[in-house]
Design goal:
Layout (H helix, E strand, L loop, with lengths): L7 H15 L7 E3 L2 H9 L5 E3 L9 H12 L3 E5 L1 H5 L7 E6 L13 E4 L2 H9 L7 E3 L26 E5 L8 H8 L6 E5 L5 H10 L6 E5 L4 H7 L2 E4 L8 H8 L4 E4 L2 H6 L7 E3 L4 H12 L2 H19 L1 H16 L1
Parallel strand pairs: 1-2, 3-4, 4-5, 5-6, 7-8, 7-10, 8-9, 10-11, 11-12
Length: 335
């Protein structure tokens, strides 16, 4: 895994690696140099090895990976995303590439098998001419956060009993938080909390000030208590313009928090509109606001959506279900 950040793909790599090891797989994590990630994997009993994973002029990582895989006696080597796939060496092992988005397949040319974490991605891969027997759907899982106590509203600067809408994610233009803030201006007497950090913070702060929403829209910064925040919220909103999967939707399902989402790629695949969530057009503050007002006024609808989302989590996106699917994949392609 060649990612350096702590985004959804990198954090799920850690969760999935540990889950496979817990299920009896002998796993060797080969990662881009990252002391914190290596420490977390080591603390769980694994022995990660760190590499540069540089650009085209990095002539050392690929042969080093080959030596590590040969020494380990690998049966299968799985490249996590494009950069890792570009460095993936061939050998006595089976090769596979995991895609969490619509990445150019030229980076995965050494991969015998391709894994998509949504059916949309796997369908797109197959449409590029990859034989069906080499394309596999293996979804993400998220932790079960249902037992985590809710974050106190006072700790968020929000009055007790006030309606709370939550959004989670990196403060990046692709997440559409500007659309969410414009929608907040149309939803009176409701508080909005956005948990995350990123390059759009200053721009979002200016927009909040321009709309005079400082009292009701809170930028919480980076948080590591998403479960507590979701359990405190009355409604979770995903406002992304583009979202290949939407791990935050899965986390909301886990927390039994009703979901309202823009129709980006991942949410529109995950959500059965009107059954386990509500979908609205992308980049439409008025539609987002109208749906939020309607849901906040209808407690029974929120309860029904939350229960249906929780059932989806338990049957499709929980750790035992997804880990079993991954283990089945490993057994099928290596036997």
């Amino acid at each position: 895994m060649a990612g350096a950040a702590n985004g959804g793909a990198e954090l799920f790599f850690e969760r999935m690696t540990l889950a496979l090891a817990d299920s009896g797989a002998n796993v060797l994590p080969l990662i881009r140099a990252n002391r914190a990630r290596a420490a977390r994997l080591s603390a769980a009993g694994l022995a990660p090895r760190q590499y540069r994973f540089g650009g085209p002029l990095d002539l050392f990582t690929k042969p080093a990976l080959r030596r590590a895989l040969k020494q380990f006696g690998a049966e299968i080597a799985i490249a996590w995303m494009s950069r890792a796939a570009a460095k993936l060496p061939t050998g006595a092992w089976i090769t596979a590439g995991r895609l969490g988005g619509y990445y150019p397949l030229k980076y995965f040319c050494t991969c015998r098998h391709l894994i998509g974490n949504t059916r949309g991605i796997t369908g797109w891969i197959a449409a590029q001419g990859v034989p069906a027997e080499r394309v596999h759907y293996l979804p993400n899982f998220v932790d079960d956060v249902s037992v985590i106590p809710p974050a106190p509203r006072a700790s968020l600067g929000i009055p007790e009993g006030a309606p709370l809408i939550l959004a989670l994610g990196r403060l990046h233009a692709v997440k559409g938080f500007d659309t969410l803030i414009r929608a907040a201006a149309l939803v009176p007497e409701v508080f909005f909390a956005i948990a995350g950090e990123g390059p759009e913070r200053a721009s979002l702060e200016r927009l909040i000030a321009a709309l005079k929403l400082e009292a009701r829209v809170k930028l919480l910064g980076w948080r590591d208590d998403a479960g507590a925040l979701l359990n405190a919220a009355d409604l979770f909103i995903s406002s992304s313009r583009h979202e290949p999967l939407g791990n935050m939707v899965l986390e909301a399902f886990s927390a039994s928090c009703p979901v309202l989402a823009a129709r980006a790629e991942g949410p529109r695949e995950l959500i059965n509109d009107g059954a386990d969530g509500i979908l609205v057009p992308v980049d439409d503050p008025a539609a987002l606001a109208a749906a939020a007002i309607r849901l906040l006024a209808d407690g029974s609808a929120r309860k029904s959506l939350a229960a249906a989302g929780r059932r989806r989590f338990e049957t499709e996106f929980s750790k035992p279900i997804v880990t079993a699917a991954w283990m089945d994949f490993l057994h099928r392609v290596t036997r």
